[in-house]
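Record format v2
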Amino acid sequence: MAATALGLDSHHDAHAQHGSQSWVRRHIFSTDHKVIGINYMITGFVFFIIAGLLAEAMRLNLAQPGSKVLAPDVFNQFSTVHGSAMIFLFTIPFLVGGFGNYLMPLMIGAGDVAFPRLNLISYLLFPPGGIIMFAGFLFGGAAQAGWTSYPPISTQTPFGLSHDYGQICWLLSVIVVGVSSTITAINFLVTMVNMRAPGMSWFRLPLFVWAMLVTVILTLVVTPALAGGLSVQLMQILFGAPFFEPSKGGNVLLWQHMFWFYSHPAVYIMILPAMGIVSEIIPVFSRKPIFGYKAIAYSTMAIGLLAFLVWAHHMFTSGVQPWLEVYFMITTMIIAVPTGIKVFSWVATLFEGKLRLDAPLLFALGFVSTFTLGGITGIMLASVPVDLHEHGTYFLVAHLHYVLFGGSVFGIFSGIYMWWPKVTGRMLNERLSKLHFWCMYIFFNTTFFPMHIVGLLGMPRRVADYDPQFGIWNLFISLSAFVLGASFLIFMYNAANSLVHGEKAPPNPWGGRTLEWATASPPPHGNFATVPVITSLPYDYTLPAPYFGVPDDTVHLPASPTHE
Amino acid sequence: MSAGSAVVPTHKKAQTNTGLSNGFLGIMCFLTSEMALFGSLIFMYLYVRRAAPVWPPLIPGLAHGVHQYYERFNWPLPTVNTVVLLSSGVTMHFAYQALRRGNVRRTLVLLVVTIILGVAFLGGQAYEYKHLHDVAFSAQTYGSTFFLLTGLHGAHVTGGVIFLLTVLIGTLKGKFHQGNDMVFHAATLYWHFVDAVWVVLFALFYITVPIS
């Protein structure tokens, strides 16, 4: 990319005008997209740890049959909050609010997002929204109907309570976080449509930006639909409005349709940014342009479109009409095609590349291998006869963890390792990074692969106890899960050490060609002193790496608002 | 920003990739999300209506049929209310046109009329709610869906009235004028959206007779 951007030393006078502001004003209430992005990531990571500990407690209970570590209703609460927190309070905020906020404006050459103050409001809704979900534990028990919250289980009052406060907390929490998400989607969409640097046409966008574009369009359209469903369930619980009460004209399937119309696109909201991250990492660490740039861009759009057409594959066992099941089976299988195109493109990029097997690439390869396996079990489940047998078993738990953990979480960590130098200005310890990868990859597989088998053997999901025949499998899974959990400590130590003692990062340690590498580590306020004019795709390694030259005064910034 | 960098332009003169301002695109995205919200709840209403064995539920003591359906409402109030709201959309349109042409006095008059009509609509809805026959929120889904959808719409009208009052104060203070009309335009678009939603709800709840 012929970049003429100038990167400023982060200690330059860009910060001087803010020197008199308090720490809180600069780090919590800043409208700078980079600060907001970091805040999303920190908050999201805290929820990740808490939700992970809930899972470890569940695994402790499941290590042996007949175990009384957790009472059954407590187990159900943990299971519900683990899933809900991982989805709504970690994966989506970290990828969209975190990586999206930090990287997208930089990658398109903008100074910030379209509405920075609205961006801050989005973030400020996130921590309280998350805390409300956990507040249920203090009010007689958190929600216990699973993250899917089906009536009548979700609308019944638990024994001994006057109201299901936990469920009310869950509903309010998801509504608040959903509003935050929708506002972010509006902000990002306007930014990407209107504030790209001169010369950055649609087919010169980095693939992470393509991923964010489709992700936020999905978010914009389906999150309000979820809000509608959640409000309806809230009306039933609080005021007795019988939307899901058949005796008064309601319908239980109604909830399932409203819920899954959002929640299926939600899984694409969770995977597309991770795929975008991997699409950025693989070319850089193969020293080759991405294979099939347009194919990946079009596949991203195709996945976004198809995402709206497959939701009832979550409802094959709930009594929907058979003809409808056939339709959804077909569309679900079709969505594997653009996904497969992406996997082939990544593999083709690696082929005959000059591979640099550092942590970002290792995690990206981990992503590709585990996500592909998860995709394969997804195709199996898409077939109605198979799903009738496997729905509600551990086979499904294995599938969802292979795509969400093997996919999104590995993608998140590959992004963390890739952009850590850019965001913090420090390098991570490479040996510890590799150790973290191998521990996480090996123990992820030993934890979740056996779940396929135990599910096929007949173990149901969301159970606190099970038939003793599954005992040895569950013990093995639980022990693996404990080591997997412990492996995150390697990362946390590495991160803390880097922030305190890490070597200073250069502007472009990996030799990337996207615009965030054409400015300092970390980038200053306003990101670029002058905006580069884009003349080619961001993956052209024949061009020299971005350099710091003389500013070009004839270039005007696109519509970025003045920052305070 | 340090010396030697390009000056960041204001909203009006900003160069954007599409030529449309950020604010305009933003309000259109927001209205899309609102359409999705109302869309999902309208879907809910249609689903419940289709899946119920009898719609609307029978009023005890009355024969089942068209008469019973219409008897729940206080005609001609719903029709009058609809005309009131749609008229406010017309006055709002011309208020914005007047602002664009620099006629501040006309803008203010039309804006005030719009607000009065909007409040009149809300008053009509409140009266309607109090005087419905056999429509209850928690007895049957007929009432639940009716109150949820029209209530949500009413909340949006209320929010719209507050938005219009803010715009009125801004215009009086001279903040919104011919050269700075983005917020006024946004309010106009929002108000038209609220009108459009009402037309759909009116058709669904008041006009269409269910097929038994």
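Residues 27-518 of chain A form a domain with the Cytochrome C Oxidase; Chain A fold (CATH 1.20.210.10).
Chain A touches chain B through 60 residues (CB under 8 Å).
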